[in-house]
Amino acid sequence: MAAHHNVVGPPVHVDQRKMMSKVFVSIGLSLDGYMAPEGMALEHWQTPDYKNWGAKWGALMSWIFNQQYFRDNLKLGPGGETGPVNDLIRRTTERIGANIMGKRMFEQGEISWPEDAPFHTPVYVLTHDKREPWIRPGGTTFYFVNDGPERALELARQAAGHRDIRISGGADAIQQYLNQGVVEELQIALAPVLFCGGRRLFENLREGVSTFRIDGILESPTATHLRYVRE
Amino acid sequence: MAAHHNVVGPPVHVDQRKMMSKVFVSIGLSLDGYMAPEGMALEHWQTPDYKNWGAKWGALMSWIFNQQYFRDNLKLGPGGETGPVNDLIRRTTERIGANIMGKRMFEQGEISWPEDAPFHTPVYVLTHDKREPWIRPGGTTFYFVNDGPERALELARQAAGHRDIRISGGADAIQQYLNQGVVEELQIALAPVLFCGGRRLFENLREGVSTFRIDGILESPTATHLRYVRE
């Protein structure tokens, strides 16, 4: 049947464009531009008092902790807010067909996430470690990719199907994909906190990297949700 | 007459609080946290192609160039937009009783501002240079303060009267006042541009500097206007 006879949806050429996975980033950022405070590292994971990293991280992410969808996903118990911020978290989570993350983020998560890790998709970990896929209950499988970020993105595209690919973090991984010009959307929860040090998101970017435009803003008392799309 | 007999305004103790000058910052910021792109320095002032600083600066400030109040103030000719962004610029400008700026910002401005410099208040310049006050037409007088930022703030407070004190820039000056904990409001026009290098606003901040809360947001296509007040 010719494309224009397809009465159950838009013409096929539009359909195919819609079916392309988008590559996006969705992260919390301190007002001074940090994704993580100083001291938030594997070797201090059990001592959140170290440089006060635990409290700082908590302040950065305070916007999310009481949202129903987030609480449910991390098995933090029932209840929670169900307004527009919750809807944003839900939409962001549900659009993800595959995650990509750096080795450090994985290692920190490995000891923090519940048994039923909160991704529920394939997760491609950029690492030099050779390791068999690690299958978690609830649909999260971690694949360890030794052939660089391009290869990880290729695998993520294959796995994601019609859904999108999230570059989950950390800063290094996001910077690599930004520098390759493949990041199509940036979603930033800008929290009104000053870390005065730590791991910056926007650093090591090459000149002439993609340009973005403002796509939408959602206000909340604990973070400003900024959305940018690549032009 | 006792305060509560004052029928033309609120009681005197409220009045006095209102009369205290606020110290605030109002600046343009790139999405990656820079106030100025690399190459934007006095020695390259006549060559805006150098590291493309002119185009980058233009992109950062594009939100302001076509606003009526700004155009009028800089004598760029008639016309311009008159919506909420214009109102914001007007309110911000009209509340200022004194400006404080760093030496570098002054030196750059000295060769760029029109004869009738766009401040129309006393301006206290932090510098080691000894120099007589420089009086411009239109009410701008530059005073050169050699005794440090505290002294400049003292002088600005005396000059500002009921109005507020703007720490105009550059980054160094703002950082000094942030580190002293005296900045009560931050107004940031966050433009969706990536500079990939330059002069960062949030840097060299001491641990435990003031905490801020989100006070208001004004959306526009070319910049997101974020307002924070000290808690």
Question: Can you put this structure into words, describing what you see?
Answer:
The first copy, chain A, is of the alpha/beta class and 231 residues long. Chain A is globular, with a radius of gyration of 18 Å. In chain A, the strands form two sheets. The first copy, chain A, has a nine-stranded mixed beta sheet with strand order 5-6-4-3-7-1-8-11-10, with helices on both faces. The first copy, chain A, has a two-stranded antiparallel sheet with strand order 2-9. The first copy, chain A, is built from eight helices and eleven strands. Chains A and B meet through strand 10 and strand 11 of A and strand 10 and strand 11 of B.
